[in-house]
Automatic annotation (TrEMBL):
GO terms for biological process: transmembrane transport. It comes from Planobispora siamensis. Keywords: Cell membrane, Membrane, Transmembrane, Transmembrane helix, Transport. This is AI-2E family transporter. It is found in: Cell membrane.
Amino acid sequence: MPSTLLRLAVWSLCLIIIGWAVFYVAQFVAALRIVMLPLAVAFLLTALLFPVTRRLRSAGMRPIYATWVTMLFAFAVLGGTGWLIGVRANEEFPRLVTQVQATAREVQGWLQTGPLHLQPTQISEWIDRIAGQITQQQQQITQTVLTGATVALEVLASIVLLLFVTFFLLKDGDRIWAWFLKAFGSATPRVDRAGRAAWVTLSHYVQGTVAVAAVHGVIMGIVLAGMGVPLWAPLAVLIFLASFIPIVGIFFAGAVATLVTLGAKGPIYALIFVGILVVEQQLENHVLQPLIVGRALSFHPLAIILVLAAGGIVAGIAGAAVAVPIAAVIYRALPELTGDPPAPLPPGQSARELEPGPPDADTPGPGPEGPGTTPEPPKETPGASATPAPAPATPDPAGPGAASGSPDTASGTPGAVSGSPGAAPAAPEAASGSPGTAPAASGTASGSLATPSAGSRSPGE
């Protein structure tokens, strides 16, 4: 078999195996979506809220208290926002209905007197068709309402699980990660690098996306409020939430806001809103997104569309919302798992400073003392003299015995001069190994502890 065909066969087999694995993993995740989806959202919330917990810990607060304060802060923000949106929607919904009815009459008159010159009977037929379509879907709507209790229980269980996972990730995230690494043995450093790189990517993506979505929602909310469009606050929140789904989300939220503007203010205001939305979206894509999010999500738009489609198939709208950050985390962690990149150099050091030193003993290599510190002196080698050889001493007129005092003191402590046990006794003129012995006339050896004057005698003489 030619080598080209063999390579193609191997690649085809690998693609089949990968596709099979991805399919069954997707089926597994879809079956456990009530667990996997809250877990993924909990990681996103942890990446968003952990800076608050870290600041509280740095201020001296205990981890348990810092976690509770962070969770209560998040509840206050979400609850306050939801309450304000509900109040505004309740106040402005009747006005929206009135404006939509007025706009419908204007559109009907334009269809009759405009360039289309439609007859009232034709308009009535279109309205009847729309009503018939709604009636046909009534059975499906009823079934959806009947199954709403089951869906509500699943949503409630997912929310409870989400809160528990987020709480413990904020409180004990470092301990959970250390426990998780114990299962990898010798591969622990590589898995640790991959996990930390993935966490940095996830944190940058979530925090940057929240900032971009907030700017997007505030600008569009100001535009809608300036036009006098009712429900501008709920529409601004919808635009904010839809910004978490790249490319697709903004089209959906923009379409809803445009329809509300069309029904409330007419086609001129709707066209103005669409123009402002397009300009703002271009500024976001080319200025805000690269500046704030950076390279945390360096995906091609086609890849983003495919990832969104896969997430939507597995877990619906929520799956599409978490699919892109999960793909970004996997994309960033895989090179750390499959390769072995060098560790970054500490600040202020060059690669030359971290290279091993030469093998000779006089130039020590890198060690705990670090560059720029004084290395330790070389250790003594058995059999080598601990002090330099003294200069020849001038003979004492009183003789050797007078200088040394006694045979015991003349020889000094065994090994004091030579530095090793069993060394020959020192000569009288060089004996200085123990306290109380006379030094040589030319000076004192470095190993003595007492330096009596030359010619002094021992106490026993």
